[in-house]
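Hi X.,

You mentioned you wanted examples for the new student's onboarding notes, showing what a folding record looks like when two proteins sit in one file. Here is a clean example. The first protein comes first, with its sequence line followed by its structure tokens.
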Amino acid sequence: MILGSLGLYIYQEHQKREALKNVEIYLADVDVKSIGATSATLEVKLKFYNPGNTAATLDRADYSLYGNALYVGDGRITEKVEIDPGENKIVTTPFNLSYSGTLGVLWEALRTGGQITWRVVGDAYITTPLGTLTRHFDENLKVSAA
């Protein structure tokens, strides 16, 4: 009985790891919430789609954000996200965009309502007793800055 329970537990943990491998990750939106004199507040929205038959769990994610091919900074999803089979889940994270350095090009696009091509590159993680699984993602999205 104990060996059967242990075997079932290990199988379930393995299934969780496999489910995250199959999750599709998209950059859904980068929304400008406010524009200040020295920075802007953005909301980065990542969409997770689980095409599998097993619920997928995301423990955390780290990402770098680029605007018009310029590095903007780093962001993080810190809360655990459960993605049921066949489900889309959008996770919104706040992001502070400083105007220093080469970000003048982005500031100009934000100010004038031009096009910005956003790119998010990162890793999603699930930690189980079988170890930590890393799922890499790299997505682009072109939006109007207006």
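Then the second protein repeats the pattern, sequence line and then tokens:
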Amino acid sequence: MARAQKIIKVVFDKNMNVILRTDPVFSFLFPEIVTLTSFNTFLAKNKMLDENFLTKLNIGGKEHHVCYKCIDLEETFEFEFFLLDDEWMIANPTGRHDIHDQLTNVLTQRSLVALLDHEIKSSMRDKDNCTAIIIDIAYLKDINETFGYLAGDTIIKTVATLLQESSRGADSLGRYQGDKFILMLHKTDMAGSIHFIKKFEEVLLTRSFHFSDINFNIKVDYGISSIHQDDTVDTLIHRLHTKLEDSKKTSTTQMQYFS
């Protein structure tokens, strides 16, 4: 039996005819939709004007049955999209890849790389300031070896949740590797990225990390880079790792935990 899974939500301003909020995945999957008018054109073209009607779309090279729900509010239209598929949403034929990481519910590395490529090209085309931050949870290997991988997973999930809560809907957040995340800050310059890190550090200081009877003080390292005009995903990620390693060399904070 096919199973439904909500994948994206987009909110339009009725009066301004623009997108107010959206999941970054929406812009990646449907780059032609930038206004409410273009969204209605998309629905009409694909015979989806009736929200109860299932239509078949080719998304990411794979056919899916798609339906949506519209919430008509006083000043906005909110749309929630659902995919119905016998396998997993936007997956390769083996079903090994998914948009969202199962542990943290942020983007997988595969989806993140695709969105970074989309964001870099959009930044170059529109001449917008965009910056990326790589976030590395320090000493996670030591925590895993001392307390077990469940403790490490708890910390990874908590950091991911805090990053999601601290970022905006237009920003792209993904789990790049086990203990590393990459956050693309949309239309944000270097000063804005530094401000984000300072605010996030304040959040970390006020949040306790618990596992069993152990409380952890978590340290996070960062690497920041703006988007260059000749960038590719590979050059951007390489530069982020270089900045991250530079940051680690100047840091002397040690892992702390107490029962």
